[in-house]
Known about the structure:
CATH topology: Maltoporin, Chain A
Organism: Bradyrhizobium japonicum
Region (Disordered): 38-87
CATH architecture: Beta Barrel
Keywords: Cell outer membrane, Ion transport, Iron, Iron transport, Membrane, Receptor, Signal, TonB box, Transmembrane, Transmembrane beta strand, Transport
Low-confidence stretches: 1-79, 623-628
Subcellular location: Cell outer membrane
Protein name: Iron complex outermembrane receptor protein
Amino acid sequence: MSHAFLITLLSSVSLSSAALAQSAAQDNRSREVGPVIVTPPAQRQAPAISPGTQKPRAARRAAGRNRGAPAVAVPATQAPSGPVQTPLNTAAVTDVGSRLGITAREMPATVEVISQKTMQDLGIRTTTDVAKAAVGVIGGDAPGAPAIFSMRGFSGDQISTLYNGIPIGPSTMTGRPMDVAGLQQVEIIKGPDSLVAGLGATGGAINYVNKVPHTGPVINDAFTSYDSFNGYRAGYGSGGSTLINGLDYRFDISHFNNKGFIDDTYSKLSNVSGQLNYRVNENLKIWGAAEYRQDNDRFYWGTPLVPANAPGIVPTNGIVSGRWSNYYLGGGTPVPFTIDARTLTTNYNVLDNHSGAGELWLRSGFQWDITNNVSLKSQVYGYDAHRHWFNNEISSFDQTVGNFAGAQSIYRERLALDHAQRLYGNITDLTVNSNVGGMDNRFVATVAASSNQFNVSQDTLFFNDYVDLLNPDRGLYGPRSDEKIYTHLDTTSLSFEDQLKLTSTFALIGGIRFENIELSRTRFDENGLLKANYPFSKTFNPVTGRIGYTWDIAPGVMLYSQYATAADPTVANIFILRPTTPLLLTTSRTYETGVKLLSADKRAEATFSAFDIERKNVYVPESGILFNVAGKIASKGVEIAAAVNPVAGLKLWGNVAFVQSRFIDFTYVDGNGDFQSYSGKTPPNVPNFIANAGASYRFDTKLPVEIGGLVRHVGDRFNFQDNLVTMDAYTIFDAYAFVDIPKAYFPTVDQTRISFRVRNLTNKLYAAWGDPGYTDQIILGAPRSYEVAASFKW
C-alpha cells in the first residue's frame, strides 16, 4: 500500500466543510442505502439509534482453547417495515470491514450480510450453521474450539470474530456455541482485513450483530421447535417505543436444548438480552445494552480412525480415505483406514464430563450530531466470561494392542481447563461528510482502546487409560493437578478511513490502522513455582490497511479492486505465545478484484471475485506441543454467487467457491531428528471446492404454502498438514415446507407460520471437521433429522 498516497488523501479532508452529518439510522440495518451525496445540504431529521458500531496438544490449549449512510436520515418515527432487500442482500449496511457506514455493495471487497430472515428461511439455528448461508465458508464445532470457520484457505484463529464490532480474542479460545435467535444479522468480510477487526483477520472477519430497538408500535415475536434428536428450541422477543417519549426498547430471550446424534451429548444454549435507546433531542441519542449467555455442554470429541483391514472391523465408505498410522501414539506402517460402522454414535467421553461457559456483556454509548456535517459516536463495553472443559479428549485406536476384536484398543487421555476472562474498552468514531474540490467525501477517524485479562487453570496430569472400541467403559475423569497461566493484553489503535467520489460513479476507498499491543504473560507449575523464562512481555506495533476503488461502469454494474493487509501472531493466537517462540507478528496481504451486478428491477443479483492471498512467517502446530516454521501460506481462488426472483413466488440462488491453498517452504527437523517437508501441502480443513444451491416456491393460496430445497457440496479436506488423511467430499440435501396462516384464523396474532424441515435428506455419512490437534479422530456430520416448528408475530 502506498502510505504516502493514503495519508495525503486522508489529510485533504476539512472538518468544517458543509455537508450532512452521517446518520445513525440503523435500527434497520438491512435497508438499502444510497450513494454518498453531500451537496446541497438537506434538513437533518432525528435518526434512530445505532448501538455503535487447532490446537497442538499443549501449545494451543496451554493458554486456553489451545455503515454511506443516507444523506437524509430516516425519521425517528419510522417503524420497522419491509426494507428493500436485494436477492444477495448487498444493500445492507455493514460494520464489518469498514466504519464508513456504507453498504456491502459499496465496499471494494467481498462482504456478505446474512439477515435474520435468511437464517429463518434456511433453518439456521447456531452460529456454526451460518456457514451454510455464505459463499465458500465451512463451519466446525470442534469441541475444544467451537463455532470456528474456514474460508479462503484459512481457518480457526486466522478468522477474526467480532461481537457488535468488538474483538474478543482468538476464536479458538473465546468461541462458544451460540443460538442466532437474538441476532439481527451476521456480517462476513473475506480476506485479510485488520482495519476494523484488528489481529487475526487473515482469512476474514465475522461480526455478530444483536437485534436493536426500533421506534414505533411494539412488535412481539415468539417461536418454538422440536426435532427428531429430541432437541427443542423456544424464544420470545419484543421491541418498540415505550410510553416515555423518545425511549425505545428491545428484549430477547431464548433457550435451545441442542441434543447430539452421538450418545449422551448435547449443548444447552440460553440467552437473554436487552437494549434501551433514548433520544435526548434531535442531535443526541444515548443507549445501553446488556446480555447474558450460557451454554452447558456434553461435547462429542470425535470418532476414532481404525485400520480398514483389522479383524472384526466393519468399514464404511465415503467418510475418510488415504493411508494412516497412529499420530498420537507414534505410529507404525501407514495402512488403509476407515470409520467402523458400529461406532457412528459411540461416546468415548468420561461419564462425569462437562463443559460450558457463562458470558456477560454490558455496553453503552451515544451518538451526537455535532453539526450538519460532523457526528461523534462512541461505545464503551465490558465483557466477563468463565469457560470450562472437563473431558476425555483423545480417543486414539492403538494398532499395537490386542487382536483388535474385543480388545481394549482405544487409548484415551484427559484434559481439564478453566478460563476467566475480563475485557473492557471503548471505540469512538468521528465522522465527517464534506466536499473536496467539488468531490463528495466521507471521512472517519476511530480511536479504540481495550484491556484484556485472561487467566487459565489447566490440568497437567493428562490422565490416560484404555477402553474397548465397541463397548467402552467410560469411567470417570480421575485425578487432576493444575498449573496457572496469566495473560494480560492492552491494545490501543488509531485508524482513518476515507471514501472520495472522484466522479458520480467512481470512488476511492482507503484506510490505515496504527496499533499498539502490549502483551505480558506469567506461568506457574502445579506446585506454584514460576516456570522457566516467565514472566515475559512483548510490544507489537502493526500497521495495516486497505486501498481500493469502486466503479459503476453502467447502471447495475460495479467493478471493484482492493489491496488489503492484516497482521497476527506467528502462531495465529497471541495467548499461546511462549517465551521460546519467536515473538513476531506475521503479515498477510490480499489482491482482490471483482464485479457486482444488480438488475434494474432488483430481482436478480450476482457477484464475482478473484483473490490472491499470502501470509508470511507462519508457525503451525506439529508433534503436539511444538511450533514449526511453515514459511508462508499462499491462497488463490474465485467466488461466484447469484440469486434471482424470476416470477412472483419463485426464488433461485446458488454459489461456488474454488480455492487453492498451499504451504510454501514448510520444512523442518522433527523431534526424532527426521527431515520433514510439507511444502505444497494444503492446510487442514480447507476444501478446494464448495457449492451451494437452493430453490423455493410460494403458492399464493388461501393458506399460503412455500416449499424449498437446498443442496450443499463440500470438497475433500485434510485433517493434518501431511495430507495423508482425507476427509472425503460430501453432498447433502435439505428440504422444507411451511404454511403461513392468515390473521383471520387467529385474530390476536398478525403472523403465524408452521414449518417442517428435513436435514440431510439422504442420510449421508460424512466427516464435518478435523482438528489438527486430534489427528486420530474425526468429527462426523449429523445424520438425517426432522424438525417441526411454529413462529408467531403480533
